[in-house]
Write a structure and sequence with these properties.
alpha+beta, 3 domains, 8 helices, about 40% helix
Length: about 250
């Protein structure tokens, strides 16, 4: 449906394609043509004088002359040189902008199309490196390469989103307890310097539970032999404290 806001030449071309079987019947073409016009354009059609149109060609010429201000203006070829991938822009968004611009340029410039698309990619982009190492010879091959790297990009984005959700869920859960690991220098931990790792489980805070004096922190001592210290620098004076979240324990 033509509303008077798009290119009238394109509208006539599409109409001719749909009516190709009846192209020789000019009377029928003229009668069917207004069925694809919107209310505003129909006012123009209804205003045509009786006997002012003698053929379908004259009708389309009058139509084009009236709505010529809506004709699409072809972009110059050097418009492609101004296109480049923006910071944090996805390959899909950049390629969509690029092909939209290409479609607004009249003519067939495959070599320029391939070269300017490649130049518009960042130097470190994998697709640009691929196009340099293995150049494509036509636009179809370029589009296939773009689709390939778009799929890789989408897979990476889905993976990043999944990891972010997993990290968010893990950080929002309260820790089940605390694992303290301290390895001190010999002679600073009494008679058993290797028995210096313990696991403390956090007591549940329940107002209805036993009195505070009755609640005690549960500790399970883990021992380390001298073999566990192989490869470490001994002796040392500073204690090493490591805190990790492992299986819900902090």
């Amino acid at each position: 449906m033509y509303n008077g806001r798009t290119d009238p030449v394109e509208h006539v071309s599409h109409f001719n394609l749909r009516m190709a079987v009846h192209s020789k019947n000019e009377a029928l073409m003229c009668k069917v043509f207004p069925s694809n016009l919107g209310p505003v354009v129909m006012r123009w059609f209804d205003g045509l004088g009786v006997g002012s149109i003698d053929s379908f060609k004259e009708l389309t010429q009058a139509f084009g002359s009236c709505f010529i201000t809506c004709s699409r203006i072809s972009r110059p070829l050097d418009s492609l040189l101004s296109l480049s991938m923006r910071e944090r822009e996805t390959l899909k968004t950049y390629s969509d902008r690029y092909w939209e611009m290409v479609n607004e340029i009249d003519g067939n410039f495959n070599d320029v199309t391939i070269r300017t698309f490649k130049v518009g990619l960042p130097l470190e982009h994998d697709l640009r490196k691929s196009l340099i190492g293995k150049p494509v010879t036509n636009v179809r091959q370029l589009m296939d390469q773009i689709d390939k790297y778009k799929r890789v990009e989408e897979d990476q984005q889905q993976g990043d989103q999944s990891r972010s959700r997993a990290q968010g869920n893990a950080s929002s859960r309260p820790s089940l307890g605390t694992i303290n690991v301290i390895f001190a220098a010999p002679g600073r931990t009494g008679s058993q310097p290797s028995r210096i790792m313990f696991i403390a489980r956090i007591a549940v805070d329940d107002s209805n539970s036993e009195p505070k004096k009755a609640r005690m922190e549960i500790r399970s001592t883990l021992s380390f032999s001298d073999e566990d210290k192989v490869g470490t620098i001994q002796p040392h004076d500073d204690a090493l404290v490591v805190t990790l979240r492992i299986g819900g324990m902090m």
